[in-house]
Amino acid sequence: MPEGATKNTEDRLQQLREALEGGKLQHLRRMLHSLHPAEIALLLESLPQAERGIVWDIVDADDHGEILLHLNDQARAQLIEGMDAAALIAAAEGLEMDDLADLIADLPEAVTQRLLYSMDADNRERLQTVLSYPSDTAGGLMNTDPVTVRPDVTVDVVLRYLRLRGELPDQTDALFVVDRYQKYLGTLPVSDLLIYDADRVVGEIMDTEIRPLDVGLSDREVTQRFENLDLMSAPVVDANGVLVGRITIDDVVDLIRDEAEHNLMTLAGLDEEEDIFAPVFASARRRALWLGVQLVTAFIAARVIGLFQAPLEKVVALAVLMPIVPSMGGVAGTQTLTVMIRAMALGQIDITNAFYMLRKEIGVALFNGLLWAVIMAAIAIVWFHSVDIGIAIAVAMAVNLVMAALAGVTIPLALRRIGVDPALAGSVILTTVTDVVGFAVFLGLGGLILLGQV
To answer: For 401-410, how does the pLDDT look when each residue is reduced to its tens digit (9 = 90+)?
Structure first.
């Protein structure tokens, strides 16, 4: 988050706390009313659960639906649990279909049934259409409210039709041209309606180069399409080419933010939807698993060190320098792993070009390995007056950096192959590899060179 935005949030949080502590509920209500639902959601997430409930009761009920959409899963579940069925149904009213599809998954079954029953047939069908697709596909992201026109009508007819409608759906930058069977033909930017003569036919001026998104397209591919083509909105079609909806830039921005949070949190084995003020036991339980995994890997590294107990007891220099080699390998490996995960997220890496990535990263590792091996060897020789120790740490560092590069490229590919998120498990496995290889090579060489034993 930009520094200015962070400062604004901190200032608002301070004002909110002062109003709560001073009992100035009217002032607090006016303050919340002036904020966007996304800003209110951020403030709610920044409050302990007891205070969060107080503020939620003060928030304008008309904003409840939008605010719930912007909250993380845990905070949303907490607030939903405290709302009755009537309040939840009122909060869901007026939401866009794609947003309603996101929210309805968190509602109690009884509330969902009442909500569906309260909707008219058209809206119920539109919602069921969105819900029929996985949430991480174009079909699950789309809105079912595209404005369509025929290719054989004139600009004047389109303008009169829009005036008759009276309003357009939010984020409408283009109309979609379809045939009599609702098959997508092209896009008509709203701006074109202002610059073309009224007697021009839509089929002559529509843009046919914007390819529609298939309903089964993954959310990651949707993001890439918007980024590469600088789209504000895009049509979504089914397997028969029939227009079924549209995706707008605001949904894509949410996707980008969620992906960034996911990558950041999973690198530490955490859930990006975790509530920072969740109960202690709930947070501890979620984090315990990955701490346990890390402990197992630490025992593996400790076992490797134990194999070289004799050299360590006789040569203090080995113990002093021992942490450096795995540490350097860990940093180098993490750099490669981060580049790989980013490239995979952008769809830039697959089995066809992975070898070239591997060759490049090994080249980088060789360069840095030799550079820092020479520097570290010189330091070790000066420090401990031993060329043998300098040779041992230089060779170990070079080998470990190359192994780190190899692991940094292959681990995420292997994890994705077996269906595991590389951002979640990659760093744990990488740390194990660089620790084990670093300790084994350095202590093994040290034992051979200095003592003639391992």
So the answer is: 999 999 999 9
